[in-house]
Amino acid sequence: MSATQQIEPNIDHYLAEYARVERDLPGSDDSKRERSAELTRFSEAGFPSPREEDWKYTSLQPVEKRRFEISDEAEPVALDELRAFLPTDLDAHRIIVIDGHFNAALSSLDELPAGVTVRSFADYLSDNAGATVKAREIDEEPGSLTAMNAAFCTDGAYVETAANTVLDKPLHVISVASGVRDERMTQVRHRYVLGENSQATIIEHSVGLGSKAYFANQVTEAVVGRNAQLTRIRIQQESERGYHVSSFFAQQRRDSRVFNHGFDLGGRLARIDTNARLVDHNAEVHFNGVYAPTGRQHMDNHTKIDHATEHSVSREQYKGVLAGHARGVFNGKILIQKDAQKTDSDLSSDALLLSDNAEVDAKPELEIYADDVTAGHGSTVGQLDEDAVFYLKSRGVGEEGARAILTYSFANALVQKVGIEPIERYVEAAILAKLPGGRAYVDLA
Amino acid sequence: MISIKNLHAEVEGKPILRGIDLEIPDGEVHAIMGPNGSGKSTLASILAGREEYEVTEGSVTYKGKELLELDPDERACEGVFLGFQYPVEIPGVSNLYLLRAAVNARRKYHGEPEVDAVEFMQMVQEKIAHVGMSMDMVKRGVNEDFSGGEKKRNEIFQMLMLEPSLSVLDETDSGLDIDALKVVASGINRLRSPERSTILVTHYKRLLEHVVPDRVHVLYQGRIVRSGGPELADTLEEEGYANLETDEAAATS
Ligand SMILES: Nc1ncnc2c1ncn2[C@@H]1O[C@H](COP(=O)(O)OP(=O)(O)OP(=O)(O)O)[C@@H](O)[C@H]1O
Ligand SMILES: [Mg+2]
User: What Pfam families does the record point to (chain B) (predicted)?
Assistant: First the structure.
């Protein structure tokens, strides 16, 4: 981008918006300077355009044409309004962020194990003079939306586990867009820093309540220390008029493991970037994702696994279930660098089209510069097996039910990988509930 | 139980059934034999409601209802059961899940409450014992990685669970060793009662020694060309289907 580039009117809006809220943003003066540099980066690059290869299939036009504002404070939301998003029997610590602001009253962070810190990201920034908005260890790569988030981020979850500690229960982080006022944006940022040999499971849950259009732009950074293990479960249930963009960056040290499970169910448009960089030997990463757009929903998952050194393992599986006029995009990039000998990687993408009007573009992308590696990949797009539909009907299950059961079973293999039963049941029910006639079969699973 | 009259059907414009008449009284077991491609599976599929076959003429009355007007799932709820010649594998849907859905669909159809979980599992325990399946197997995906014989046992297990009024078993005895054959046969006999009827599609007399049919019919080129008692199976085993050409001529005239 040239320096003389015209600043679009909508970018002007965000510059003014930044000036309006800057004083209230958490963090030291140094971090304010960091934010303002990020704002410049965003304003120069602008919103991603479909001319960029990575954004070929996803237009942010509907986001770009609106003028979203930061909420100075959260709308009042009672825990009761969130009940539907609390998985039954889930024993978890909880952080609730509403309209971009940590809500201490609704959160529940008592009895954390010694050596484990879980707190609001804003507090972390405010309390530590040296704290930076972006983790120093991580290169978020030139992405204008992550820059926008770094400039504007108001709050989120900060998790730090000391060496040899275990977060005893999953942490359920719910980011709520109240949707009460029109054209609001949430800029939420989470950071997880896992010390050597430590372990944590974090559920990142994005939900929308109201009927107004909003923009949720989220970034999560994770630094996963030697032999540490992070399980991240991302459940995206934005409301019908929610525009959701989120990026995850993991940096994995030697012998570390990351299990990332993504479930995209909501939103008018969702774009998710999931990235892991395996910087030292014998790191292992698993990306599993299910996306289930129906109606006119648009869901785009981009992933990138960067194998930088020897003996690392990656396993990636994405499954899409598309109905109505839905649109799905999957782009899975595996980069195996020159020094990453003995890398073992496998990537598969399968999509099920339930209607003639649904469409999916799925592309595995392998870039391999080492010569002694195992790298498998496969991609399928198909329809329901009509013989199986008839088999179920011949046993008494109605047409819609048969289709719902089969569709669900297609995705189920990945849901079962989560390994936390209350979450599995919650996600199962949420997927089934989206399918015509599926609700009746929720309790059978 | 069921009365089939002058049934004609075609697939993709090609006539396959060319006027079938068949009457099966309550409580009877009828065997249907006939060479490959004669239309046996087509008949079975039409009774179960498979849509790719177009019925061009004729009628089927089942328990006084026009069977052809019901959807496949309604037929199932009315007590029709098809044992598939080639049962499909459905990974991701466990046998138990399918059966609970099936049992509940039936109950709902008849205005009854859903099956109680404990009661259901007791039923499963009892029936898997009859067919020699393990709990482990029924927890797996429907027919997932089952051998040919295991799939057929599973069809019989489902039949025992669903207790149909009319079972249409399409070559449930094919590809079985003698032990599995006995399991299948005893499953069929177990359900034999004055209020249930069975159509056995088979190529082999072997099954009919264990399940003695009331009648045996021979289907040839889309028509029933000969009917008789159980002894007809012996005749067919000895003579093959060589004389059917003349039978067909007789049936047409
Ligand atoms: N879906 C279909 N599309 C095209 N032709 C079909 C279809 N189903 C059956 N046919 C044809 O109809 C005829 C009868 O087939 P059917 O499967 O009913 O025979 P069958 O008596 O069951 O044979 P087998 O003993 O081999 O099982 C065959 O010629 C078969 O090729
Ligand atoms: Mg057949």
Answer: ABC_tran
